[in-house]
């Protein structure tokens, strides 16, 4: 039986004195006025920008100062090769899509474009663009009152721009339901029973009676239904059970792998926690439409690391991170298909930008916005293919440049949201969800 702390109840389910409240979230969800079939997206952000030419776009014939030590390995799709450090992903390439020519990345450590698809230096409406999950929650609402449409498994990092940008002009009621910080602690109530929670509901109704007497607009009465839904979520076991991976068979947890959530990689990144991918699958299975998570730290410039050790060269870090990444991402994709979710759930894996073709004199690669890479899976897409190509040093897109708008239009399409959909900004002006009213990638849909 899930329960909530008094502090958590007042913040999440109570009257609320500003900021996000659970009734507000439910009210915004209901405002969409319609439901669709349960399509979903799991969004995996690789914090700091992964090295595309060492992962999915290797150039073995390039000069040594570009190619590095890794060699490509054949996959189960004829003619498609990826890094030899990813044998598990190579065996399921028929279920994957590699985009090698994503262009238009911004150059800074700023996750805003990763989460909403809009370049932060282009014109932005007042309040900012909403991230994908917030837009989906607004347009489609929850599939189940006990499971928020948009849930975030992202850890808060000490480098602010790495964190999710938020709901933008849609307002805080459409922010993600966050479960990795204080909200997660509140999902287990120590000493508060359902009976005591019912007593608090009675008390809240008493407060509402006072508010109604002074509320000529009737808004207090209108909020009653949403407050009742909030209580329903607080007393439901569905969300808490979805977050409890101890309910999974040991062999499943082992297949994904585990990491220490207390260790923020390189000090200001996210922790390397493969179990977040398993939790994301459980949330989607429970009814979530969009689940976001941040994974590890991929900003490998070389030289000394945060602890002052001189073993922070990019290839040492890749030998450490690549096997865990191969294991958990392949486990997620295989798990989704095994459980009948492969055609309904889209997986997307990406970072802010690519890395420089030339390896630096301190054995690292720096920021490279000229071309980026993304890994996709599931969602009913035409998988088992590579889209686009770069030059001989993986520095520029030479065929089929893919814009961020196209990538995000594909995600919305997979969720059942029509191309060209708009949402009103703070002034009431309709805004396209994707840049330049882009359309889904023709190769995938």
From TrEMBL:
<dbReference type="InterPro" id="IPR006311">
    <property type="entry name" value="TAT_signal"/>
</dbReference>
<protein>
    <recommendedName>
        <fullName>DUF1501 domain-containing protein</fullName>
    </recommendedName>
</protein>
<dbReference type="InterPro" id="IPR017850">
    <property type="entry name" value="Alkaline_phosphatase_core_sf"/>
</dbReference>
<dbReference type="InterPro" id="IPR010869">
    <property type="entry name" value="DUF1501"/>
</dbReference>
<dbReference type="Pfam" id="PF07394">
    <property type="entry name" value="DUF1501"/>
</dbReference>
């Amino acid at each position: 039986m899930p329960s909530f702390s008094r502090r958590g109840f007042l913040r999440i389910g109570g009257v609320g004195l500003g900021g996000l409240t659970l009734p507000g979230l439910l009210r915004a969800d209901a405002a969409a006025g319609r439901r669709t079939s349960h399509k979903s997206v799991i969004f995996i952000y690789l914090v700091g920008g992964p090295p595309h030419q060492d992962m999915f776009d290797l150039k073995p014939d390039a000069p040594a100062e570009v190619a590095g030590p890794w060699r490509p390995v054949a996959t189960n799709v004829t003619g498609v090769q990826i890094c030899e450090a990813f044998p598990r992903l190579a065996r399921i390439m028929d279920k994957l899509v590699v985009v090698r020519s994503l262009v238009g990345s911004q150059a800074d450590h700023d996750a805003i474009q990763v989460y909403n698809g809009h370049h932060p230096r282009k014109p932005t409406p007042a309040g900012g663009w909403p991230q994908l999950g917030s837009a989906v929650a607004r347009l489609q609402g929850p599939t189940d009152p006990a499971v928020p449409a948009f849930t975030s498994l992202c850890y808060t990092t000490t480098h602010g721009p790495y964190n999710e940008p938020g709901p933008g002009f849609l307002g805080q009621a459409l922010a993600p339901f966050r479960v990795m910080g204080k909200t997660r602690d509140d999902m287990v109530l120590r000493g508060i029973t359902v009976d005591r929670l019912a007593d608090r509901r009675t008390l809240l109704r008493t407060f509402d009676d006072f508010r109604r007497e002074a509320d000529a607009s009737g808004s207090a009465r209108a909020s009653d239904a949403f407050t009742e839904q909030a209580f329903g979520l607080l007393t439901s076991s569905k969300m808490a059970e979805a977050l409890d991976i101890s309910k999974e068979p040991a062999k499943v947890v082992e297949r994904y792998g585990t990491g220490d959530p207390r260790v923020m990689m390189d000090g200001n990144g996210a922790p390397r926690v493969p179990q977040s991918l398993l939790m994301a699958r459980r949330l989607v299975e429970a009814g979530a439409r969009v689940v976001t998570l941040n994974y590890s730290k991929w900003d490998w410039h070389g030289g000394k690391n945060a602890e002052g050790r001189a073993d922070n060269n990019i290839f040492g870090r890749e030998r450490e991170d690549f096997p865990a990444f191969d294991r958990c991402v392949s486990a997620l994709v295989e798990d989704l298909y095994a459980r009948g979710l492969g055609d309904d759930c889209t997986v997307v894996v990406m970072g802010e930008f690519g890395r420089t073709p030339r390896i630096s004199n301190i054995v690292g690669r720096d920021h490279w916005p000229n071309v980026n890479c993304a890994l996709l899976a599931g969602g009913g897409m035409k998988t088992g293919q590579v889209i686009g190509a770069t030059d001989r040093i993986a520095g520029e897109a030479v065929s089929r440049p893919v814009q961020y708008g196209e990538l995000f239009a594909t995600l919305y399409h997979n969720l059942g949201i029509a191309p060209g959909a708009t949402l009103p900004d703070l002034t009431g002006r309709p805004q396209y969800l994707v840049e330049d009213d882009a359309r889904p990638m023709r190769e995938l849909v």
